[in-house]
Design a protein that fits this description.
Distance between the termini: 50 Å
Strand content: 5-15%
Number of strands: 13
Largest sheet: 7 strands, mixed
Order of helices and strands: EEEHEHEEHEHEHEHHEEHEEH
Strand order of the largest sheet: 5-13-10-6-9-7-8
Structural class: alpha/beta
Radius of gyration: 23 Å
Number of helices: 9
Shape: globular
Length: about 350
């Protein structure tokens, strides 16, 4: 099969496409089955009523996913029709990916649908301050990182998509390791994430995207349970330089609940070196219970987005000022840490 159509971010960008799909090139726009909204004349010359459009996924009312027919039964025919249309586009390649590999249709209809039940029913995430993310234009969301496995990034992606008034998309910057893992690498690209490098971050921000970064990296993700909610070093402040060059606001984000899903009591450095991974966690359940021990604990999460820190008032050369980068990095880190402590004081329980 040929590759799916690649849609570049800008004309003449000269950037080699990163994403690939299956099937022949083609768009994945609205199907003809959506029908026209205006009335039309029949063969007898009489005015016909307008055709009823097929509702969007998740729409309520008759014919929607949450709606029902007159007899009270869900409209399964339309659901099946949409599912078959989706499968046909995947097989024939009539869908689009951007030059980072982001597949909007697959993310919206499949990946987000798989993550959302975990977000809503398992971790029961509460979101605060999501309106602090601008409704349009670029923004850099900076969050703490924890939990042994990077589930916090996925939960943050759902939080922004489902709760922001403009239903914005989060493009996460991920570590090199993510893009060396089979299956995981492809899914990360399809979901819109890319390598944590300055060039990719600046390009996404320049295109008006919401970009997410977790400066603690593996230091935060794999820290011992005894150091929970204590922020690790934020690197060299490269994310501040990126925001300054793009002139976009920095939005601090604090995540509570992820630290306890896999209480990391120890780290087998020998196994980590053999497997080529940053750490090998030892938790109360893993690896002692085998695959069952990999099931995260159902903690109650809170994700809070703080007030944005503006960067558009600085001159262009500010991005090369090490003292300014240090000050802004420290300011962002302090805001996240202070909010973490506040959320911890206010929460009733780890699980409720």
């Amino acid at each position: 099969m040929a590759d799916a159509k690649v849609i570049p971010f800008g004309e003449g960008s000269g950037k080699r496409p990163r994403g690939r799909g299956t099937g022949r090139p083609g768009g994945h726009g609205r199907e003809d089955g959506h029908g026209r909204a205006d009335g039309h004349e029949g063969a007898d010359g009489r005015e016909r009523p307008p055709l009823r459009p097929v509702p969007e996924p998740g729409a309520s009312g008759p014919g929607g996913d949450g709606g029902a027919e007159a007899g009270g039964h869900p409209d399964w025919e339309q659901r099946i029709a949409r599912g078959l249309a989706f499968l046909r586009r995947r097989v024939t390649g009539e869908y689009e990916v951007d030059d980072f590999g982001y597949d909007e249709e697959l993310t919206e209809q499949v990946l987000m649908s798989l993550i959302r039940p975990v977000y809503e029913n398992y971790f029961r995430v509460e979101v605060k301050g999501v309106e602090n993310i601008p409704s349009d234009g670029g923004a850099l969301v900076v969050a703490n990182h924890s939990g042994t496995l990077p589930l916090d990034g996925l939960m943050m992606q759902v939080a922004i998509h489902d709760h922001h008034p403009a239903r914005r998309r989060l493009r996460l910057l991920a570590a090199d390791l993510v893009f060396t893992l089979p299956v995981v690498s492809e899914l990360a690209r399809k979901a819109g994430h890319t390598l944590a490098c300055t060039a990719d971050a600046e390009e996404l921000l320049g295109r008006g995207e919401v970009v997410g970064v977790m400066p603690e990296g593996f230091k935060g993700l794999g820290k011992p349970f005894g150091e929970r909610y204590k922020l690790q070093r934020f690197g060299r402040g490269g994310f501040v330089s990126t925001a300054l060059r793009a002139g976009v606001p920095i939005v601090p984000c604090s995540i509570v609940g992820a630290e306890e899903i896999y209480p990391m009591l120890g780290n087998s450095k020998t196994l980590a070196r053999l497997l080529g991974i940053p750490y090998f966690p030892l938790t109360p359940t893993f690896p002692w219970l085998g695959p069952l021990g990999a099931l995260p604990l159902p903690t109650k999460w809170t994700i809070q987005f703080g007030e944005p820190i503006a960067t558009d008032g600085y001159p262009p050369e500010a991005a090369d000022d090490p003292m300014l980068m240090f000050d802004l990095t420290d300011q962002v880190r302090e805001r996240i840490q202070h909010t973490l402590y506040t959320l911890l004081v206010d929460r009733r329980s780890v699980f409720f």
